[in-house]
Structure formats: structure tokens, C-alpha cells
Amino acid sequence: MYTFSSKLKTFSFVLMLVGILGIGYGFLTAPKTIQDVEKILKEEEAHHEGGHEAAAAHHEATAESHEAAETHEAAAETTVDSTTVKHEEAVAATTHDTIAKDSAAVAAVPAAEAHTEKAEAHAEKADAHEAHDTKEHAEHVLHQLQNKPWAALYVACIFLMLISLGALAFYAIQQAAQAGWSPILFRVMQGVASYLLPGSIIFFLLLLACGFHMNHLFSWMAEGITVKGHENYDAIIAGKSGYLNFPFWIIRAILFLTVWNLYRHYSRKNCLAQDESNDNTYYKKNFKMSAAFLVFFIVSESIMSWDWIMSVDAHWFSTLFGWYVFASFIVSAVTVIQMVTLYLKSKGYLENVNTSHIHDLSKFMFGFSVFWTYLWFSQFMLIWYANIPEEVTYFVTRINVYTVTFWGAFVMNFIFPILLLINTDFKRITWIIVMAGSIILIGHYVDFFNMIMPGTVGDRWFIGIPEISSLLFFIGLFIFVVFTTLTKVPLVPKRNPFIEESKHFHY
Amino acid sequence: MSSTKVIHALYNDDDILMDAVHKTRAAHHHIEEVFTPFPVHGLDKAMGLPPTRLAICAFIYGCYGLCFATWMMWNIMINPDGGWPQDIGGKPSFSYLQNMPAFIPVMFEMTVFHAAHLMVITFYMRSRLWPFKKAENPDVRTTDDHFLMEVSVNGNEDELVKFFQGTGAVEVKVIDKH
User: Fold this and answer.
1) ipTM given for this complex
2) Backbone angles phi, psi at A14, to 5 degrees
3) What is the dihedral of CA B144, B146, B150, B156, to 10 degrees?
4) CA separation, residue A155 to residues A398, A450, B3, B74 (Å)
5) Is B175 at the interface with chain A, CB within 8 A?
6) Fewer CB atoms inside 10 Å of the end CB: C or N, chain A?
7) CB distance from A424 to chain B under 8 Å?
């Protein structure tokens, strides 16, 4: 039996406490009114330093409208010139016809005047437009800044919840595939998956908060967006409202979260019952249940990724998105299973786990990292290559505004793991695995950050106090829940039909 | 050491063979070669053979393939002096990085191609395998259901024969190698 070390427990509490304080700080410092934002924007303009892209873009727009006005003036001037030239020619042709010359000159002047007037009108219009823009811009920035603490919470929450879901899926795969190496790690996987219940409860509350308009994370939930004639009306989103509407969306969330949690609950129950039974009935039950769960999982996972992640950018869609999200959290889940295993082993709790088990998990970390990269690149390259405006904006934003995190995720999730874990010997060395694992986990947090942030906070992103403390809070909770579950039952299943093979697994 | 004599000890079970290999090594007889009809798991470790470095070769060949693909495509698609950096469907051929995604599939395939093929050729060369090569099996039964251990003879021949008969061999022969 594992006993939760008091140090780790304290550590998890400290993380949660620091996290809560930071989250509170994030919400308190978010601007409340449009006046606050205008003040922030003015300050930014006053500083006028690099990095305030929004302000710069705004200036550019103003400059452009001025330019437009200038062109008009220039056009007016040319008209005057050309008429004058023409009339001089006319003078040469009919030297004595002064009347014609005069009348022409008279005609030319009003034309030029009209043009200048027009240009002035344009300039005025541009000014009016600018004023309107400033207001709209401030409102836009207000929504982004108000979204910041919410989005930070949302990313950290969904990331940790999906890690536990990934551990559950990995566990189900091991059961359905009747793997001979892994039963020794089933209790560890169940431990990691146990975070699913608290995680999904908090996540569900977050979804409700979005639905009750406490934030603007999902633009398709905005009021009047499907009402024709409303100022928020969006024809594209209105066209999707048969799928993207709050009741249907939340019912799907309830269904998925419930079924996942039910599988987690009953599969663990059967696994424990199998320990005390005289035959393999519970094992067989678990086998069938895992196969059924996996079918449900892959359908629900795909829909989940559209609902909770892709719909943040409601104008954009991608067909392989479900797989991409799956790859991202399954590799994180395997990494977490690996890290928990290494921790427990280092404390002397998993005597039957040998370097071959560690090696197998490392191979999964390596393989799934490459799999993630494959999907990441496939999604990116197909859109980049075809460059269809309606879908390429997704990557334009990410590459221009999220340059560091976008390419950083690629480096952390592919380059580092492939170089660190390709060597067979390295796959067994604890410190290398922990290093590669940490990079993978940070990389996939950043990956989720890249998926959510551009659609919610746009160019107002920063990995600051709200983001880090949200992550700390959920990590603390995760550690607390996972290690509490691990203390509940023995770490080695007793009567699993493959447990002997697993104990003596050697690669 | 002028003796060219070797002992051929034949076994019909891989477990017995493994035992015999352990005993032979313990008795400090030099094992020249072991012939088996199929891979016997753990035999290389029992014989004390060093691990293969073929994987390291493959990694290096893969790196080479990646460099080759990059060099090739840069020169054809991008290089302003020597290549043809044309506008093909609006793709940005100003620098390699700008048009990189389009090159990745080729870079990937070239990496795999070089890693795989050069490694296989290395394997053939290192294990001296080629078409029309004269087969080297000392006893045709070793390709079907017998295992053969070849040990060089130093000193007492009869004692050595007795030793191998004691290891469960179904047949022990002394062969004059030329």
C-alpha cells in the first residue's frame, strides 16, 4: 500500500493555494469597463513601444485613410492640369476664340473645386470612421482582456482533465489489447485517470459559466448572433446554429463526461472485484466494457474537440482536428503515467516495475510525440498549401501573433523528444525521461494554449500570472487527487490473468 | 598454434544449446561460431557478442538523407544563382524556409529512404551477403532443425569431445578445417 508522503501533500496544497490567489488576482485586475480599456489603450499609445501591435495596426489604418484622401486631392489637381493643357491647345487652334477659352477655364475651376470638396468629404468620413473604429476597437480589447483570466482557467482545466481522460483511454487500450506488459501499471493508470471526476466537474462548471454569458470565450454564444437584423448577427454562425446552440452543446457535454466517468468508475470497481474473485468473470467484463468504451470514446472525443476547442474559432473548421487533439493529450497522458511510475518506483513502491516497463512507456512517449507532429504538420501544411482565405486565417493569426508559442510547441513536442528519446539506452535513464517528459508536458500545455487563446484573447495574450497560476492550481489538485487515489488500494492487481507475465516482462 | 581442427557439436533443442554455450564459456573454450535455423533469443548475450551498431549507422544515414534532400531542393527550387526560383502558383520561393512546408514530404521520404537502404546495404556488407555467394553452412541440418556450435581445438582433443558430449550434444565431430 502506498502512503501519501506529507511533503507531496503539502506541496500540492501550496500549489492550489498559490494558484487560487493568482487566479483571483487575474480576475481582479481584468478591466471592468470600456473606460478602463480606453485608459489602457491611451497609455499604450503614449508609450508607443514595440509589441503593441494593436495600436500600431490602428495607426496604420488611420494613415491609410489619410493617404486615400491625399490621392483624391491629387486626382483633383491632375484634372485641373489636364483641362488647362487642353485649353491651351484649344487656344493654339482657334487663336481668336477667347470666349471658348474663358468658358473652358470657368468650367475647369468648378470641376477642380468639386474634386477637392469630395476629397475633403472623404477625409471627414475617414475621421468619423476612425472615431467609430476607436470605440469598436476598445470594446473588442475589453472583451479580450476580460477573457484573459477565463481563458487561462479554461486552458489549464481542459488540459489536465484531458490528461486524465487520455490515461483512461490508454488503460482501456491496454485492457482491450490484452497487453502482457502493462497490468503491473494498471493501478497507476487508474490513479492518473481518477482526476477525471473532479476535473470534469470543474470543467463542466466552466462550460456553464460560458453558457450563462459570464465571459466571451465562445463567440457563437454572443447575444443576437443568430438573429437577423441584430447588430451582432453573423450569417455564418447562424448557419451553424443547428449544431452550435447552447442546449444541444451542454447536453453533449453532459453525455460525454458522464459516460467517461461511468467507465472509469466501473472499470476500477471490476478491477478491484477481480482481485477478490475466484474466476475471471470481472476480467472478461472489463475487457468487453473497455472495447465498448473505446468505440464511444473515439466518437465522443472527436465531437468533444469540435465543441470545446474548435468552436472557439467558430468560423473555422478542420477535419482532422479530433485526431490532433487526441494525439496531444494521449502523449501527455502517457508522459504523466511515466512520471508517476518513476516517482513511485524511486520511493520503492513498485518493485516489480523494471526498466523494460519504463522503456515501453518511453517508446509510447516517443511514438505519440511523432504522431502528434504528423497530425500537426498535416493540418498546417494542407491549409498553408491551398491557402484558402477562409481557413488560412487560423494559421495567419497563430504565426503572426503567437509566433513564439506556435513554433515553440513544435520544437518542444517534436525536436526535443525525438532527439532525447530515440536512443534505446536513454529510454531507460530516469533523468533523461523526466527531462523529456517535462518538455513534452510544457509543450502540450502550450499546444492547448495555441488552440484556445487566439480565438479568445487574440493579440492580448501573455503567459503571465493568470495563466501560470491557473496551471499551478490544477496541477496541485491533480497531484492531490491522483496520489490520494493511489493510497486507497494495493499498487499491484492480484488476480489479473496477465499479472505474472507483466511482473516478469523483459524487453 | 598450428592446429586447424575444430569441434562441431550438434544439438536439437535451443534450450540445451543455450546451456551448452554457458558451460563452454564457463570452461573458457573459444566459440568460433554457432549455427541455428532461427534466431535464438538471448544467444548473442550468452556468447558475449558486442551489441550491433547498425542503428547508429541508420541514424547517420538518415541525417545524410535529410541534408541531401535539403541541398537538392534548395538548389533546384530556391537558389537564385543556378536554380530556377520561379513563381509556381504563388508559392514563396524567396528562401528555403518560406517554402519549407512544401519540401517536408520529400525531406521525410529521403531521410527514411537513405536510413533504410544504406543500413540494409551496410548489413549486407558487414555480414558478407551477396547473390552467388557460396553458402557457408557446415551441416545442412542447421537450416532445418539442428543447432551447431563450432569450437576450436587447443590441446587435448579427446577431453574436449567428452566435454561436449556431456553438454547434451546429439553428435560431436572433429573436423579438419582448411
Assistant:
1) 0.90
2) -60, -45
3) -150
4) 16, 9, 76, 40
5) no
6) N
7) yes
